[in-house]
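QA checklist item 7 of 12: single-chain prediction sanity check.
[x] sequence parsed
[x] length recorded as 588
[x] structure emitted
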Amino acid sequence: NSNDLPAAARRGAHARVRVWMAGSGDEVAVAMEAADEAMEAADEEAREAPEDSIREGFAEVLPVGREKRVDGKAEVFYNPAQVFNRDLSVLVLATFAKVRAAEVEERQRKREQRAQGSGKPAPAESSRSQGLLVLEALAATGIRSIRYARELGNRGAHGIRRIVANDLDITATQHMQRNLEHNGVPPEMVEVVCGDACGHMYARRAKGPGGNPDAAYDVIDIDPYGTASPFLDAAVQAIADGGLLCITSTDMPVLAGNYPEACFARYGGTAIKAGYVHEMSLRLLLNAVTMSASRYGREVQPLVSCSIDFYVRVFVRVHDSPARVKRLASKTAVVHQCVQCETFVVQPLGEAGPEDGPPKFKPARVVVPGESCPECGGRIRLAGPCYAGPLHDAAFVQRCLDACEDEDDLPGVKSWRKITGMLTAISEEHHDIMLYYKLPALCKGLKLPPLPLRQFRATLAALGYRASHFHREPEAVKTDAPNAVVYDLMRIWAEEHPSKKSPLPEILKKEVSLKRPFQWSTAEDTQKSRVARFLPNPEKNWGPKPRARGAAKEAAVVAADGACNIAGSNSQDAAAETGGGESGAASP
């Protein structure tokens, strides 16, 4: 396993492999000699690297804070839960780079054809044909940028040509620079910038007065400690046409409905406590992104949207398309949720004609039942507005799954089993159906014995409806069946397994509308692959860790007694990625 070796040893080992695959001759002998020199340098590097340095993928991060400890040990904070985040990001960027390269090549070919037809000289090749220009807005220790550079650099058009690693804290940028030098990353590959993330992105916006589309970023990665909402307006302007935004939000208590007023202020929609909380969190974050982009005539296309552990992560493309922005109302909705049972109704805010037909827009028809639940008579609460369009792009997800079959192409990625499982679950999810039921909650609400999940989904399919899971919830029922049909099945199950005292007798008293005699179905989907989709956490206490502080923030906290502890602040310190983010110095 080359990842167990120091950075120089990995370079030598991989050089030997490439040489062995290339063939023989004088060039091979010279290359082998260079590889041996790299292997020899590994011994010296291993002696120089502290024992408590962090190794992940092809990156090795030096510890910080050693001078503050009497025992000489480093105050290193490292959250292993975020390894999956970075592994997945490496895979998505590698896949996106190939898609982007094909698009750039096709545009260049068309420009050359037009120039040839008009007798003009051939246009110069775009710099985007040399690979992706990436911004890591909140870089902290730089471990993500190092991995991007080491694992996706030097691949030409199918890789990364340059990375800008930004952080607000001067201590973080100094430590980042040491990490880059330790990993042998050349300065022309990764540029370290100390500054405000939003200010940096506003200065390089692709749209509006003073905008420079040629200087815009192909990829912007935003992974803060807390909410990403303060960075969205700048990010949707600084990304190039067709570029990729990689956004993480870790403020799950807000997105899960504990603080609806804070959720509305940050994401433009109200969260509600319901069984579908993980999907609703994704849709609220996407609502904030789409609304920010629409102000500048830009459309957001979700490629992959993941609810992972204690955070949400979305990968979206941003396109210049004022015409398609007009469809945003039809892709935005509010949710009416009963407070007593699991009944919910999705109310779109607009209607639009078919994608391939003439544009036709009109106000939405009201589809909600009223102020009381039609199943149990309970009160109705409102959630949203939220994004109501597809969470994923099926073709892109399939490309990522195809890449999972060639693990040797990305040897720095180690979470292949979890990545493959999650992407497989996403590919089997019905992308155009919004929200889901949780079968255990349906049974518990009526005090009924558990209903087999396979039987419930198969019966819905036999009735002509679609049903799938949600990639975060193995017991979810994501279906286009109306609430009445779902509860008809529960009423039939209650007839076969009577409850002594149901807390919601109004539901069970209603007449079943399904045709009799009724028969459950247990047909299995034989086309599913035998891939583990829902893996358990690898260890106990798997989740976010305490937030770390850089030198500037430590002084501010002492002076203000915690007044600056605002979720989503521009916390680009030496560990802005701890807990909800990534790695850095230990929290005091």
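[x] summary fact logged: The chain has 18 helices and 19 strands.
[ ] second reviewer sign-off
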